[in-house]
C-alpha cells in the first residue's frame, strides 16, 4: 500500500499540470469573445483565453461602450480563429498562467501564425499588460512601431477620441427628436 501511495505522489510531483510553459498545446475553437479574448477547448474543457501582451479596443465595455476599431479587431480575431485549421496556445515562462479573472494567458497561434502579431500589424491592437519580459514582446513592439509610422488602423489620422456607438446613437436620437419638435412647431403655426 505504501508503495502505491509513493508512486502516486511521485507522479503528481513530476507531472502536476497538462500545460507546460513554452510548449504549444493544440486546442479547438469554442466561441468568439472579442478582439483579445476567445474560448477554446483545452484538456477537454471550455476555457477562456486572454491573449498575452496585447490589448484591443473594447466592443462591449459597460462604461466605455464601443471604442474605435473594437468591432474590426473582434471581427478579425473571430474570423481568424473560426477559419483556422489549427490553433495552438503557447504559455510563457515569464507570465502567470491565469489572470485575476481566471482566464488563461497565452500566445495564440492560428495556422502557425502568431495572432497577436497579426492584430498589431493591422493596427487593431497595442502592446500592453507587460509585467515581465515575455517571449514575443520585442517582435510585437517592432510591429506596433511600424503600424504607428504607417498610420494603420487605430493609429490612423482619423480623430476617433469621442467615438462610441452608444453615444452616436444617443446624439442621433436627440437630433431626430429636435427635428420632429421643430417640424411640429412649424406645422402648429401654419395650421392655427
Provide an overview of this structure.
The model is unreliable at 5-20 and 160-166 (pLDDT under 50). The chain has 192 residues and is an alpha+beta fold. The strands form two sheets. It has a five-stranded mixed beta barrel with strand order 1-2-3-6-5. Strands 4-8 form a two-stranded antiparallel ribbon. It has helices at residues 2-14, 70-83, 115-121, 137-150, 165-190, and strands at 24-34, 37-42, 45-51, 54-55, 87-90, 104-110, 113-114, 126-127. Helix 3 (115-121) runs parallel beside helix 4. The chain has five helices and eight strands, in the order αββββαβββαβαα. 39% of the residues lie in helices and 21% in strands. It is elongated and about 80 Å long. The chain has two domains: 20-161, OB fold (Dihydrolipoamide Acetyltransferase, E2P) (Beta Barrel); 167-192.
Topology record:
Layout: H1 2-14, E1 24-34, E2 37-42, E3 45-51, E4 54-55, H2 70-83, E5 87-90, E6 104-110, E7 113-114, H3 115-121, E8 126-127, H4 137-150, H5 165-190
Parallel strand pairs: 3-6
Antiparallel strand pairs: 1-2, 1-5, 2-3, 4-8, 5-6, 6-7
- Average predicted confidence as pLDDT: 84
C-alpha termini separation = 101 Å
Instruction: Estimate percent helicity.
Output: 25-40%
Q: What is the percentage of strand-forming residues?
A: 15-25%
CATH class of the largest domain: Mainly Beta
